[in-house]
TrEMBL record:
SUPFAM superfamilies registered for this protein in UniProt: Glyoxalase/Bleomycin resistance protein/Dihydroxybiphenyl dioxygenase
Species annotation: Exiguobacterium sp. (strain ATCC BAA-1283 / AT1b)
Name of the protein this chain belongs to: VOC domain-containing protein
Amino acid sequence: MLFHYHVWTPHVEETEKFYASLGFQVTQRIGKKDGEFESFDPPLDWDDFREQSIQFRIIEMKRGATNITFGYGKKVMFDHIGFLISKEEKVNVLERAEEIGLTVQSNVRRTFIHTPYGFRIELQEHLDAVQSRSENRVLQLSVETKRKGLEEMLQRLFGRPVSEIIVSESNHSRLTHVNLVSDRALRVNDPNGVQVTQIIEG
């Protein structure tokens, strides 16, 4: 199940406020202050630390079956997408990744597959990565890449057509559109230029 995307952005506070306005809840903030990483999780809010020159490594926000993370970058940059999968499916995907020749990076919490298309793929088997398995899920993501072959690679990697990812060619590798299931229809751009469309399903 496609559940996640991550971007680097100079608009950290604005991005959090944008997604909060759509009903997402902050579940984690980790930032570097005076050379050390610290947690600034809720109930802290921006009025508590805005003036402290914190460089946020990650802010995590959840709503239903959707998990969004972002951190500070000098420019907007798409980093990765994430799939919530079973342990058995993860084993199969990693075997296919090895056959394809993709680099895999793992730790106890998550696994990343490095692709030649300008972004990584996260494999996540921990169900606490989301609040729900069905409500407010990611319906589709649209990405632009500078290379051909992403759709074929995804199909080979997951053993099925990955219709949740819409691919187009461009001079840049970037995330352009996100379609989310919601109880409120909406179409608006986030602070990083990603068009977020909320669709009422039913």
